[in-house]
Design goal:
The structure holds 2 protein chains of 2 kinds. By secondary structure, chain A is an alpha+beta fold. Chain A is built from 17 helices and 20 strands. In chain A, helix 10 packs antiparallel against helix 12. Classes of the chains: A alpha+beta, B mainly alpha. Chains A and B meet through helix 7 and helix 14 of A and helix 2, helix 3, helix 5, helix 7 and helix 11 of B.
Chain lengths: 561, 306
C-alpha cells in the first residue's frame, strides 16, 4: 500500500517551513548557476561516527527500487540508498541540489539544466554520469516499469509518447555532456525541482537494473549514504555505511538493522528494554496515553507536524449533496474539537484543505465554525427541514470507525441519519472512485499526505476535474473548471519574485473550494516518534518532513567510543 | 492400500483445483481494484489502464484463471503485485518458520492436552478435574491475540525468561508455540478426558483391574493407547486450524512465516500472494488429513483403509 495508509508523514515547525520554502523557491528560480561552495556539508559538531542502531517495522519492505517503492517503510530507506538531482536540507523542506552541483532555469521556466557533481560513485564502483540520469527518467516513465510515480513527470516534453508506449525515451531529456543534463518541459512547472527531489527520480545504474531485472528492488545499487549488506526476506535488512559516499563525513552510523514483522506494541516494549532504537511505526494508539503520562517515556518522544489533512468528502453529484447549502451545513455540524480529543490530541482541528505547515495555508481563514442551529437553518433553507438519510463510508481500522461514529452523532443532531459503511481500505477507495459509490467518506487511513511541500499537491487529483473520473481520488466528484484554470495559471508562475503571489493564488483557490464545500476538513494529524536514550541528532531529524519516518543519514548514537 | 492412496490423491488434486477456482473467483469479485493499489494515488487513469493491460487484468475471468492455472501447473505462482518478487520465493523463504511454529504448537497441545485430560479423567469429579476443565475452557475460548500479548508481557517483559518476539533460537519458539497450541490443548484435554473415562469403563480394564495389575500399568499400557486414538486423528485436522492461528500468532510475535505474509497481502489486495498462500495452506490441510487417515490403521488395527 502506498503511504496514505499511515498518516504520519511529517513536518517541522511552521515558521521555519514558511521561511525556508520561500528561500527555496527563490533559490530554485535563480537564473544562473548557483555556487557549489554553498552546498558544503555542515557536520554536527556533537556527532560521533560509528555504532549501529535497530529500527523495527510491522510490514514487509516491499521493494527498494526507487521507481516503484511508495510505502511507509521503504520511503526513507530508498532516500538513504540512492540520491536524486535535488534534495532537502535535513529535517526541513528547504530544497537544495544533491547529485546536481548547480542548475539553471531558462527565463520561460521550461528548460532546466543541471550540472552534475563530479566523482560520485554507485555502490558498484562506477562513476555516475548524465547518461544515468536520463536512463533513470526514461525508466520511471516507461509503462513497463509500472511506477506509481510516473504521473509526477507529466510536464517533461515527450512524456505522453513514453506513457503511451510509443517511445522508449523522453524527447525532452538531453545529455549535453557527461556532467550536464538538460530537461525541457512541455509547460512551465513551478513544482519541477520538487519532482527532481522525489524518490521516483532517483538515479540508478543501467547495468545493475539489467543484471537483476525484476529483482532490482531486492538488490539495490545507488549512490546513497548506505548500501545494502543483507536482506533476509520477512525478517531483517541490514544497511552498511557507504565508505565512498560523496558527502564526506557522512553517514555517522556504521550499520542500521531493520527488523521486520514487529507489532508496534511489541516494538515499544523492546524499546523500553533497550533492544530497539526507533519503532518505525511510531507509538501505537493503545499505548499513547501511557507513554505521554510517564515523564521518562515522554522525554523521548519527538512531535512534529505533517503535511496531512483528514476530511469528509461529500459527493457533489449525488442529491442531496448536490446542494452547496447541505454541504455547508455538514461543515457546521461537525464538532472537530471533540474528534481531536477522541484521538488523544494527536491532531489539530482543520478548517481548510491545506495543512498549516503548507505554503498557501490561509491563517486568517475563518471556515465554518461549529454551529448546530445555523446548520439546521441551512438544511431547512435547502429544503430538508427534517434532515435525510445517507451513508458514511469509513475504513475499518481504529480509530476511524470511532471518528465516524462521532461524525454520525454530530450529523444526527441536525437531523441527518448517516448509516456507517465500515469497510477495508481497498473497498472504500473503490467506492470513492465510483460516481454512484459513496455519498460521504471519512478519509481517515487513506487521507491525502503531500508528496512534496507545495500547495498544488493538494489540488489536482483530489479536488480538480482531472481526479473526478472513475477510479480517481476526487471522491467529492467536485469539478470547478474556473478553479482548474486558476490552478494551471498559478503553477505556470515561475518568476522567483512572484512566489508569494503564487501562494496567494493558491490560498484563494482553496478559499473558493471551501465556499462550495465539497469537503468538511476535520483535522491535521501530528506525528509522534519515539527514540532510545542513546540516539543523537537534532529532533527534527526524527520527524523529518521528507525522509519519513527518520533521516538515517544524519542521526547518530552517543554511546560510541 | 495403493488403490486407496491413488484415489485419495486424485481427490486431493480435485479439492485443490476447487480451492483455486473459488479463491480466484472471490478475489476477482472483490470490490477493490488491485491495479489502483499498484498504481498509487498519483497515477493518471491512463497509467492505471496501462498497468491493468500489462497484468492481463483487463481479460475476462476465465482467461485470467486459465492463464493462472497454466502457470501454476508449471510451478509458477507469479509475481507479487506490491513486492514485485516471485511469490514462490516469498513463500519458500517463509515456510520453514511456519512449519517450525506448527511443530512447536503440536508438541505443546499434545503434551499439555493429554496430561490435563488424563489427570482430569483419573480424578473425575474432583476439584482438580473441575479446575482443569475450567482451564481448558479458557484455553479454547481465549482470543489468541490476547493470549499472545499476555504471555509476552508476563514471561518476556516482566520476567525476562524469553525474548520479546523475533525468530532464531529455541527460546524464541516457546511463547508463540504455546500461544498457537493453547487452543488445541484445550480441545485435547476435553477429548482426552471423555475418551479416557469411556475406556476406563470398558470390560477389559475391569478385567485388568481384577487381575490385580498396578494402577500405572492399567492406565499407560492398557487405557492410554486406546484413549489417545481420537486425539491422534485430530492432529492432522489441526493443521487447518493452525493455518488460521498463525496469521494472528505470527503477527503478534514477529514470526517470519506465511501467516504474516498472508495478512500483509490481504491488506494490500496482493492477489498473487493471497492465492499462493491459500493454495499452500490448502495443500497442507489436505496432506494433514491424508496423513491422519494413513496413520490411523497403524495406531488402531480396527480401522481398515478402503
Amino acid at each position: 500500500m502506498s503511504k496514505e495508509k499511515y498518516n504520519e508523514k511529517g513536518n517541522t515547525d511552521m515558521k521555519r517551513f514558511l521561511a525556508s520554502t520561500v528561500a527555496a523557491s527563490a533559490l530554485a528560480l535563480m537564473l544562473s548557476f548557483s555556487p557549489a561552495a554553498a552546498q558544503e556539508e555542515k557536520l554536527d559538531p556533537n556527532a560521533k561516527a560509528g555504532g549501529e542502531i535497530t529500527i523495527t517495522y510491522k510490514d514487509d519492505v516491499a521493494t527498494l527500487d526507487p521507481a516503484i517503492g511508495y510505502d511507509w517503510q521503504n520511503w526513507s530507506m530508498i532516500k538513504s540508498l540512492y540520491d536524486g538531482l535535488m534534495d532537502y536540507e535535513p529535517g526541513t523542506t528547504t530544497l537544495r541540489p544533491e547529485l546536481a552541483e548547480s542548475y539553471e532555469i531558462s527565463p520561460d521556466g521550461k528548460t532546466f539544466t543541471f550540472k552534475l557533481r563530479q566523482g560520485v560513485k554507485f555502490h558498484n564502483g562506477r562513476e555516475m554520469t548524465a547518461e544515468d540520469v536520463k536512463y533513470s527518467l526514461d525508466r520511471v516513465t516507461n509503462p513497463k516499469t509500472q511506477s506509481p510515480g510516473a504521473g509526477f513527470f507529466a510536464s517533461i516534453a515527450g512524456y505522453d509518447d513514453v506513457a503511451a508506449g510509443k517511445s522508449e525515451s523522453l524527447s525532452g531529456v538531453t545529455v549535453v555532456d557527461p556532467s550536464t543534463i538538460k530537461i525541457e518541459l512541455s509547460r512551465p512547472d513551478a513544482t519541477f525541482l520538487h519532482v527532481m527531489a522525489i524518490n521516483f527520480s532517483h538515479v540508478v545504474p543501467k547495468e545493475a537494473v539489467e543484471q537483476y531485472g525484476a529483482d532490482f528492488g531486492k538488490n539495490p545499487v545507488g549512490t546513497g549514504a548506505y548500501k545494502m549488506a543483507e536482506w533476509t526476506l520477512g525478517q531483517r535488512l541490514v544497511f552498511e555505511k557507504n565508505p565512498d559516499y560523496w558527502r564526506k563525513g557522512l553517514p555517522y552510523l556504521n550499520k542500521i538493522t531493520f527488523e521486520i514483522g514487529q507489532e508496534p506494541i511489541v516494538a515499544l516494549l523492546r524499546l523500553q528494554k533497550g533492544e530497539v532504537d526507533v519503532p518505525g511505526d511510531g507509538i501505537p494508539p493503545a499505548k499513547f496515553q501511557e507513554v505521554m503520562g510517564d515523564p521518562a517515556q515522554k522525554e523521548r518522544v519527538v512531535v512534529g507536524g505533517q503535511l496531512h489533512t483528514g476530511y469528509v468528502t461529500m459527493n457533489t453529484t449525488m442529491p442531496p449533496f448536490d446542494n452547496a447549502k447541505v454541504r455547508q451545513a455538514v461543515n457546521m455540524a461537525i464538532n472537530k474539537d471533540r474528534i481531536v480529543q477522541l484521538i488523544n490530541n494527536r491532531a489539530v482541528p482543520a478548517n481548510q484543505p491545506l495543512p498549516p505547515s503548507m505554503p498557501g495555508y490561509d491563517k486568517g481563514f475563518a471556515g465554518y465554525a461549529y454551529d448546530v442551529d445555523k446548520a439546521k437553518a441551512l438544511l431547512a433553507e435547502a429544503g430538508h427541514p427534517d434532515g435525510f438519510e445517507t451513508e458514511l463510508f469509513v475504513m475499518n481500522t481504529d480509530p476511524n470507525p470511532r471518528i465516524a461514529q462521532a461524525i454520525q452523532q454530530d450529523l444526527a443532531a441536525i437531523g441527518i441519519k448517516a448509516n456507517l459503511q465500515s469497510l477495508a481500505q481497498a473497498n472504500v477507495i473503490a467506492a470513492g472512485g465510483d460516481k454512484a459509490g459513496a455519498p460521504m467518506i471519512w478519509s481517515g487511513g487513506m487521507a491525502w499526505i503531500a508528496d512534496f511541500p507545495d500547495p498544488s499537491n493538494f489540488y489536482g487529483p483530489i479536488l480538480g476535474c482531472g481526479g473526478a473520473v472513475p477510479g480517481g481520488w476526487n471522491w467529492a466528484w467536485y469539478c470547478n473548471e474556473d478553479l482548474d484554470k486558476k490552478a494551471a495559471e498559478a503553477d505556470s508562475i515561475v518568476d522567483p519574485a512572484k512566489a508569494e503571489e503564487r501562494y496567494k493564488m493558491w490560498s484563494e483557490i482553496y478559499g473558493k473550494v471551501m465556499e462550495d464545500a465539497p469537503w468538511a476538513p476535520v483535522f491535521n494529524e501530528q506525528r509522534f516518534t519515539m527514540k532510545s536514550p542513546r540516539m543523537g541528532g537534532a529532533d527534527n531529524l526524527y520527524v523529518d518532513p521528507v525522509h519519513i519516518p527518520i533521516n538515517y543519514d544524519y542521526v547518530y548514537v552517543t554511546d560510541v567510543q | 492400500m495403493i488403490a486407496y492412496l491413488g484415489r485419495r490423491l486424485i481427490q486431493s488434486a480435485l479439492i485443490l483445483l476447487g480451492v483455486s477456482i473459488i479463491t480466484f473467483a472471490l478475489l476477482y469479485l472483490l470490490p477493490a481494484d488491485p491495479v489502483r493499489q499498484i498504481a498509487g494515488r498519483s497515477a493518471t487513469p491512463e497509467t492505471v489502464e496501462n498497468i491493468r493491460r500489462q497484468l492481463g487484468l483487463d481479460q475476462p475471468f476465465f482467461v485470467q484463471y486459465w492463464r493462472y492455472l497454466m502457470n501454476l501447473l508449471s510451478g509458477d505462482l507469479g509475481r507479487s503485485y506490491i513486492q514485485r518478487s516471485e511469490v514462490t520465493e516469498l513463500i519458500v523463504s517463509r515456510l520453514p518458520a511456519s512449519l517450525l511454529l506448527m511443530l512447536g504448537a503440536i508438541a505443546c497441545e499434545v503434551v499439555i492436552g493429554i496430561t490435563m485430560g488424563l489427570v482430569a479423567a483419573v480424578r473425575r469429579g474432583s476439584k482438580t478435574d473441575q479446575a482443569l476443565m475450567v482451564g481448558s475452557f479458557i484455553g479454547v475460548s481465549a482470543p489468541q491475540f490476547v493470549v499472545g500479548l499476555l504471555l509476552l508481557y508476563v514471561f518476556a517483559v516482566r520476567l525476562g525468561w524469553f525474548p520479546i518476539g523475533g525468530y532464531g533460537t529455541w527460546r524464541h519458539m516457546v511463547l508463540p508455540s504455546l500461544t498457537l497450541g493453547i487452543l488445541g490443548a484445550g480441545w485435547y484435554s476435553r477429548m482426552m478426558r471423555s475418551s479416557m473415562i469411556d475406556v476406563l469403563r470398558q470390560d477389559y480394564i475391569r478385567t485388568a483391574r481384577a487381575k490385580g495389575l498396578a494402577r500405572g500399568t492399567i492406565l499407560f499400557r492398557h487405557a492410554l493407547p486406546n484413549a489417545i486414538l481420537p486425539v491422534i486423528a485430530m492432529i492432522g485436522i489441526d493443521v487447518g486450524i493452525f493455518m488460521g492461528g498463525i496469521v494472528v500468532v505470527e503477527s503478534v510475535f514477529g514470526w517470519p512465516g506465511i501467516g504474516q505474509l498472508a495478512w500483509q497481502a490481504i491488506q494490500r489486495v496482493d492477489i498473487p500472494i493471497i492465492m499462493g498462500v491459500t493454495l499452500v495452506s490448502a495443500c497442507a490441510i489436505v496432506l494433514g488429513n491424508l496423513l491422519a487417515d494413513i496413520v490411523a490403521p497403524f495406531v488402531d488395527p480396527r480401522i481398515k483403509l478402503r
